[in-house]
Automatic annotation (TrEMBL):
The organism's taxonomic lineage, starting at the top: Eukaryota, Metazoa, Chordata, Craniata, Vertebrata
Keywords: Electron transport, Heme, Iron, Membrane, Metal-binding, Mitochondrion, Mitochondrion inner membrane, Respiratory chain, Transmembrane, Transmembrane helix, Transport, Ubiquinone
Transmembrane annotation, as ranges: 26-47, 77-94
GO molecular function: metal ion binding; oxidoreductase activity; quinol-cytochrome-c reductase activity
Protein name: Cytochrome b
Topology of this chain in the membrane: Multi-pass membrane protein
Cofactor(s), by name: heme b
Length: 134
């Protein structure tokens, strides 16, 4: 940003370079931001309940509305019960269905099996380790 760019960067960094002050500031911002968003969403809901929604077209749209509580509440509860029952049946009746069968091999801290590979998000580190002999 012209004229204020360097001053703005130094203010955000907390100095002339990225340092401990920068990490502290960004961690605090990272921690406080969800609370600010939740508070703004609460204020938004409060204003919606106080004044109602705006209708810029001016047409009466009350004819095609369904009340939320008896219809959608029951549908949400029924959907949640179905999902909980499916998850519970998977966990209680077939606990090994989604697991890896290699998890039942007894561990040997002195010998790593050759077929073990890390998950996809650790493959870059695994490739670095494999490139170094012994």
């Amino acid at each position: 940003i012209p004229y204020i760019g360097t001053n703005l960067v130094e203010w955000i960094w907390g100095g002339f370079s990225v340092d401990k002050a920068t990490l502290t500031r960004f961690f605090a911002f990272h921690f406080i931001l969800p609370f600010i968003v939740a508070a703004l969403a609460g204020v938004h809901l409060l204003f919606l309940h106080e004044t109602g929604s705006n209708n810029p077209s001016g047409l009466n749209s009350d004819t095609d509305k369904i009340p939320f509580h008896p219809y959608y509440t029951i549908k949400d509860i029924l959907g949640a019960l179905i999902m909980i029952s499916v998850l519970s049946s998977l966990v209680l009746f077939t606990p090994d269905m989604l697991g890896d069968p290699d998890n039942y091999i007894p561990a040997n801290p002195l010998n790593t099996p050759p077929h073990i590979k890390p998950e996809w998000y650790f493959l870059f580190a695994y490739a670095i380790l494999r490139s170094i002999p012994n």
